[in-house]
Design brief:
single chain, alpha/beta, Rossmann fold, six-stranded mixed sheet, 10 helices, 25% helix
Length: 403
């Protein structure tokens, strides 16, 4: 059978193009990208010059004027509106800050309002959003607001949206990274939905499988006051190895640092979630005791090797860390395409962005080194974390309330 005509997707918060690339592989045609970061826009122009950059990329202003006819469409014809609003207002990592997680009260969450405005303008057949768990759960979650606004839009336009969400681990679908993100799918007027079934449970793609064949190149050097401790931590461990409950010298207090502090990859397991703004001690680090190269980060995010990122190393790391794994977007995109197309009219077989592959031999991990002499005076008992609910944000809140 001939391939069906491509479905149309409008991309929001396009970033480095991970979601868009996966949706392209799933049979969607990109009709426009809304992305405010100029470095990310340069990345998209570099790799997909045919993708249209809309306005200045500020969704709050673009939503005021963009209309379906600007993209050669009529109201209701857009197949998919896709993107992940900035996650910082909903991120658990924000709770390490004294202000804590603000959710929909955060000024950056106004991008969610703009997204809903575009939904009301275009009335897409489907909506796809990716975000952290705080987007749907806990203080300031956005999911209730989304459902309310979609109900209002539906009443005004005479349509009805059904909302579905689930926390997915990208590793369950062949991504060599344990990256748990909420996927929200909204479908118009009774279009059925079924979540894609995991394909790699118990048979995960390991970090070694996708990193071991990369040619040598310019590799980043470790830096910062704690970098010399990396060889003293085994593969797959973090700073907790150097606490009372670990197997090494007691240098730190148990649970007194964030999880990815001095965190190292294990060759025989998927990576942990990549960070978009890592400090000098923020992992995951390579098992060779150094930060990951940009190409290694892109491999773990299932971008093809031909994909290039604009900017210097930190800007590229930010783009890679913020991206949706392209393979996960493809998996969800193929499920959406199957729901949106008539029965039997489906896209061709998947193109391998980064399919499962197993290296024949995974080398054994190296034994950790003794801690460097300059850290020797730090050995000794340390206080552990005070307990759940007594971290930096909670303590600051208690002080403020007492005042």
């Amino acid at each position: 059978m001939p391939n069906p005509s491509p479905l149309k997707v409008l991309s929001l918060f396009s970033g480095a193009g991970g979601m868009d690339l996966g949706l392209e592989e799933a049979g969607f045609e990109n009709v426009g990208c809304i992305e405010i970061d100029e470095t990310a826009r340069a990345t998209l122009r570099l790799n997909r010059p045919s993708w249209k950059m809309i306005g200045d990329g500020d969704i709050t202003s673009v939503a005021q004027y963009l209309r379906p006819e600007d993209l050669g469409l009529k109201t209701g014809e857009l197949d998919l509106l896709a993107g992940g609003p900035p996650c910082q207002p909903f991120s658990a990592a924000a709770q390490w800050a004294t202000t804590g997680r603000q959710g929909m009260r955060d000024e950056r969450a106004r991008t969610v309002d703009a997204t809903m405005r575009l939904v009301g303008t275009f009335l897409p057949k489907a909506i796809l959003m990716e975000n952290v768990l705080g987007f749907v759960s806990g203080k300031g979650a956005a999911i209730g607001y989304l459902e309310e606004q979609l109900g209002i839009i539906g009443q005004h336009a005479g349509v009805e949206y059904s909302v579905h969400w689930r926390l997915l681990n990208a590793a369950d679908y062949g991504v060599p990274q344990n990256r748990r993100r909420v996927i929200v799918v909204a479908l118009r007027d009774g279009i059925p939905w079924e979540w894609p079934k995991p394909t790699h449970l118990g048979s995960y793609v390991r970090a070694w499988d996708v990193l071991s064949d990369l040619p040598p190149g310019d590799l980043p050097e470790p830096n910062g006051k704690w970098a010399e401790l990396l060889p003293s931590i085994p593969e797959g461990q973090n700073y907790q190895w150097l606490t009372k409950r670990g197997g090494g010298d007691e240098i730190f207090g148990y649970r007194t640092k964030y999880w990815n502090f001095l965190l190292k990859l294990a060759k025989d397991r998927p990576s942990w979630t990549l960070s978009a703004s890592p400090g000098p001690s923020t992992g995951p680090f390579h098992w060779d005791n150094r930060p990951l190269s940009v190409r290694e980060q892109l491999r773990l995010q299932t971008f093809p090797d031909a994909w290039q990122l604009s900017g210097e190393y930190r800007a590229q790391t930010k783009q890679a860390g913020n991206a949706t794994p392209a393979l996960l977007a493809e998996v969800v995109g193929r499920q959406l395409a199957a729901c949106l197309r008539p029965c039997g009219d489906r896209p061709s077989a998947p193109h391998a962005l980064l399919r499962s592959r197993k290296a024949e031999l995974v080398p054994a991990p190296l034994e950790p080194s003794p801690i460097p002499e300059r850290f020797a005076n730090m050995r000794g008992p340390k206080k552990a974390h005070a307990g759940e609910g007594l971290g930096p944000a909670a303590v600051s809140s208690q002080v403020a309330n007492a005042d």
